[in-house]
Structure of Dihydroorotase:
Amino acid sequence: MKTLTIRRPDDWHLHLRDGAVLDAVLPHSSADFARAIIMPNLVPPVVTTADALAYRERIMAALPEGHDFTPLMTLYLTEQTEPDDVAAGVESGLIKALKLYPAGATTNSQSGVRDLTRVQPVLERMAELGIPLCIHGEVTDPAIDIFDREAAFIDQVLEPLRKRLPELKIVMEHVTTRDGVDYVRSAERNLAGTLTPHHLIINRNALLAGGIRPHYYCLPVAKREEHRLALREAATSGDRRLFLGTDSAPHLDPMKECACGCAGVFNSVNTLACVAHVFEDEGALDRLEAFTSLNGPAYYGLPANETRVTLVRHDTPLAYPKSVPTAEGAITVFDPMFPLHWAVEGSPVG
Ligand SMILES: NC(=O)N[C@@H](CC(=O)O)C(=O)O
Ligand SMILES: [Zn+2]
Ligand SMILES: [Zn+2]
């Protein structure tokens, strides 16, 4: 049996939601991850430091006994965000990033930013504070094809923003294209990118060929195979600018299996198994730790975790749950469409 011991991973992009869904999904993240950047796109969103403090308390209250997990809180950037509130949140140690959702780009982004010039004072203050801006990098212009929205965002928004404010630290979240990873890797400083397990595994055929499969629908939408291959090469390269952000984004099944299904893939149940599989396929298991446990903290200016986990490759495929029950209904788990052999030592599936 093959094993691999690495520093305990962190998740640099996670949706935990609230209430019954939070209760059901949090244990899957806190079992395997030491820390996670918690996305603020609740309804209503987490916009002030006081909102983030209250949300952090709800997360800690939902944490299973014995799990050691630190939520790294973020604020949802709006055109009303007060620079002083951001500074207070950052200086208290609570707020680790702000999140930019272009209004209308994705799930619960209605309160997002329409005009970036309106948030310039906040961005300048963030640059002074050294706190990252996490970005959902897609333009919302209906004239731009949905498969081109990430690449268009780089040209139309990200590059001009970085020129205007080179001191601002940016994370381009859930990069899904060759253009995206090339762009991140061309930056000398103040730019990094997260990659999801699912975008390393599926291309757009998974959601559209042979029937429409809503559980593979997320934003940014999965792209052509050439992009998936570029993401895998980049993730497994060890490049310090790239790290794991699962973008695990649970929605109750009826919200996905309907005429206008929500965007989001729920993967926290099998993230490490999927990612270990990808790295093994690419002959890059020696670079897994950089991706899951080292590059992220280094970029965020945090220490890497001191504790370790051992990943075990079992000879027979493991039975990961197909869905997770919540008090409000079931949530389907990401199916990578291949058998999973890896598990964290000591986990229930191992
Ligand atoms: N990724 C998604 O498809 N959905 C996310 C929002 C996001 O990260 O864009 C969600 O909150 O459901
Ligand atoms: Zn997003
Ligand atoms: Zn997300």
About this structure: The two ends are 12 Å apart (CA to CA). The longest strand covers residues 70-76. The pocket of zinc ion (ligand 3) is lined by residues 13, 15, 39, 247, 249 (CB under 6 Å).
